[in-house]
Amino acid sequence: MATERTLSIIKPDATNRNLTGKINAKFEDAGLRIIAQKRIHLTPAQAGQFYEVHKERPFYSELCEFMASAPVVVQVLEGENAIAKNREVMGATNPANADEGTIRKEFALSVGENSVHGSDAPETAAQEIAFFFSGLELVG
Ligand code: RTP
Ligand code: MG
Hints:
The chain contains 7 helices and 4 strands; from the N terminus they run βααβααβααβα. The protein is an alpha+beta fold and 140 residues long. The protein has a 4-stranded antiparallel β-sheet with strand order 2-3-1-4. The structure holds ribavirin triphosphate and magnesium ion (MG).
């Protein structure tokens, strides 16, 4: 098994409800190490750039507006199979379909306001990490 890094975002619905610590505990309990973390308030344009791959999807403008509506916590998680493991801990995109014990089952409000983002593949993880962090900020 390979040690991987993945980009995680604690979204506005979760920072608004002071859930950062509870969400981080789930990552750490699953063996994911938080090797970089910062709280930022995205502009709609920055959110749009981050989610560029979704720009043709019907929910794109709603998603960008939501991601810029309040601060987010961006972080890099490291561990064995970190990308898949993080997605397992997050649960399904729509909380109605998420398994018991997952972040989205416990905390998400809706398919849009679903508390967390996680990269979906090694290439996107590398791009998304570089979007928010310099190499010096990653302390493994
Ligand atoms: P993420 O990228 O945030 O980790 O989530 P994901 O892979 O599970 O979902 P994805 O299909 O990549 O969608 C990105 C985010 O867009 C919002 N969304 N809204 N209203 C809708 O039908 C809808 N579908 C997706 C969610 O916030 C989702 O996480
Ligand atoms: Mg995705």
